[in-house]
């Protein structure tokens, strides 16, 4: 019966494992590796033929069986497509790797200071970045405080962007490993861009000094306590609180503005802080101005002359002077001084040291109290100066700096044929010329 059914229906062959029922099968018995499978006429079940005499019904729908057979037949087509895609991908990656290895340009997806340098050579990238920085910066910083305005040159503080190092970093971004890892990095950069910031440097000491130099020029600057000598009086002036540049904060602010290219066509507000003036240290002032008198000395062989010098001292004790300063209600406090005369003056040895008068000169000047004061102070410093053979007289060195603290006053003086106000003037230098 089984044989007849096998001849009438088309056979399919599958691998099944059929075990006999009712008793333990002997090794290698009842194990069927390859048997005939036939479909019933109604396609509702399958019949597995173990041999020509035995048939075993398998409860399995024919439709499910047929679907599995279709899948088995389509697997080779899907595999071919997959293999084709893999080959295509590998080929494309190989071409990309060769291009990336032999290229002398920067990989795609890389920016420097916000400038896209993808596909550029090093020289082209440098020109692009320099142009960008030039267009978004200027040669100097403009700083402002109220109505006051000043500038700081970028060249003066040696401001610099290290563009070359940034370009090297960009160029080597996809060249730091083997060809395969470099290509993977280049592919990653296509989807995750990077922006490299070039390192910024400047001369911070010079920047700090430039900022410190601004403080004395602020309209609301702090006025430090000071003193000056007028005749036989030391005049101590109390200072006044005011603004000074906050150098540390301003330095960081300026560096940040330059780094971010955020200073072109605009002024930066100066960061200031309030400062009280330094308290006058009367003891330090005394030690600075106190001087013992010096006697004139003359040695004829070899000729040597040391001129006499007046000394100076407080006319009252230091404790009394301090009480005067502490109790003074005004901005100024006058402390009396006394001049200490030497025992031997120049005039006492003048005939011996200077037996011959070489020349004399006199002139007149218009009466003006401030001008007279300036001339008297300068003349007093020059008087008694001795020049040995071969020595040069320096007016500025002998007279010293002409300042209010030194006792000089604003007075009319001649400059290039015009009358202007100034300290000490130029009258005595021309007088010295005639002498």
Give a description of the structure:
This protein has 435 residues and is an alpha+beta fold. The protein has four domains: 2-60, no CATH class; 103-224 and 247-276, no CATH class; 281-356, no CATH class; 357-435, no CATH class. The chain has helices spanning 2-8, 62-102, 122-135, 163-171, 179-191, 204-212, 247-259, 282-289, 318-327, 350-353, 369-382, 395-399, 427-434, and strands at residues 11-14, 35-39, 46-49, 55-58, 110-112, 115-116, 140-145, 148-153, 160-161, 194-196, 200-201, 226-230, 233-237, 242-245, 268-269, 272-275, 297-299, 304-306, 311-314, 332-340, 410-415, 418-423. The strands form eight sheets. The protein has a four-stranded antiparallel beta sheet with strand order 1-2-3-4, with helices on one face. A four-stranded antiparallel beta sheet has the order 12-13-20-19. A three-stranded mixed beta sheet has the order 6-5-10, with helices on one face. The longest helix has 41 residues, at 62-102. It starts with a helix and ends with a helix. Mean pLDDT is 76; it is low at 1-37, 39-46 and 49-62.
Summarize the structure.
The chain is α+β, with helices and mostly antiparallel strands. 36% of the residues lie in helices and 21% in strands.
Keywords:
22 strands; alpha+beta; about 35% helix; about 425 residues; disordered N terminus; 4-stranded antiparallel β-sheet
Write the layout of secondary structure elements.
Layout: H1 2-8, E1 11-14, E2 35-39, E3 46-49, E4 55-58, H2 62-102, E5 110-112, E6 115-116, H3 122-135, E7 140-145, E8 148-153, E9 160-161, H4 163-171, H5 179-191, E10 194-196, E11 200-201, H6 204-212, E12 226-230, E13 233-237, E14 242-245, H7 247-259, E15 268-269, E16 272-275, H8 282-289, E17 297-299, E18 304-306, E19 311-314, H9 318-327, E20 332-340, H10 350-353, H11 369-382, H12 395-399, E21 410-415, E22 418-423, H13 427-434
Parallel strand pairs: 5-10, 7-15
Antiparallel strand pairs: 1-2, 2-3, 3-4, 5-6, 7-8, 9-11, 12-13, 13-20, 14-16, 17-18, 19-20, 21-22
Helix pairs in contact: 2-5, 3-4, 6-7
């Amino acid at each position: 019966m089984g044989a007849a059914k096998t001849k009438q229906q088309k056979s399919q062959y599958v691998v099944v494992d059929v075990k006999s029922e009712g008793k333990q099968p002997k090794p290698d018995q009842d194990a069927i590796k390859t048997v005939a499978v036939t479909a019933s006429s109604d396609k509702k079940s399958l019949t597995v033929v173990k041999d020509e005499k035995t048939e075993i019904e398998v409860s399995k729908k024919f439709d499910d069986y047929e679907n599995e057979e279709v899948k088995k037949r389509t697997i080779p087509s899907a595999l071919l497509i997959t293999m084709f895609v893999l080959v295509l991908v590998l080929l494309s990656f190989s071409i990309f790797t060769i291009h990336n290895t032999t290229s002398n340009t920067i990989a795609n997806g890389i920016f420097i200071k916000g400038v896209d340098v993808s596909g550029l050579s090093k020289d082209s990238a440098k020109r692009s970045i320099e142009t960008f920085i030039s267009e978004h910066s200027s040669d100097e910083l403009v700083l402002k405080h109220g109505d006051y305005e000043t500038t700081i040159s970028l060249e003066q503080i040696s401001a610099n962007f290290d563009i070359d190092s940034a370009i090297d970093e960009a160029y080597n971004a996809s060249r730091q490993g083997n060809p395969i890892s470099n290509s993977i990095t280049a592919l990653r950069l296509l989807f995750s861009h990077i922006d490299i910031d070039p390192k910024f440097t400047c001369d911070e000491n010079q920047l700090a000094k430039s900022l410190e130099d601004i403080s004395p020029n602020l309209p609301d600057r702090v006025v430090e306590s000071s003193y000056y000598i007028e005749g036989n009086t030391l005049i101590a002036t109390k200072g006044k609180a005011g603004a000074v540049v906050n150098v540390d904060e301003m330095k960081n602010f300026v560096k940040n503005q330059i780094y971010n290219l955020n200073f072109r066509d605009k002024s930066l507000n100066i960061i200031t802080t309030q400062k009280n003036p330094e308290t006058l240290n009367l003891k330090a002032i005394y030690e600075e101005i106190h001087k013992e008198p010096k006697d004139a000395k003359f040695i004829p062989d070899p000729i040597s002359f040391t001129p006499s010098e007046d000394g100076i001292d407080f006319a009252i004790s230091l404790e009394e002077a301090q009480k005067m300063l502490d109790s003074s209600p005004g901005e100024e406090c006058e402390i009396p001084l006394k001049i200490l005369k030497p025992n031997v003056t120049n005039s006492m040895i003048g005939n011996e040291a200077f037996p011959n008068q070489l020349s004399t000169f006199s002139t007149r000047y218009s009466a003006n109290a401030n001008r007279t004061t300036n001339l008297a102070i300068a003349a007093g410093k020059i008087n008694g100066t001795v020049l040995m053979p071969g020595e040069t007289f320096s007016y500025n060195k002998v007279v010293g700096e002409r300042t209010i603290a030194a006792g000089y006053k604003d007075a009319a003086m001649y400059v290039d044929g015009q009358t202007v106000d100034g300290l000490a003037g130029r009258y005595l230098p021309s007088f010295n010329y005639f002498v």
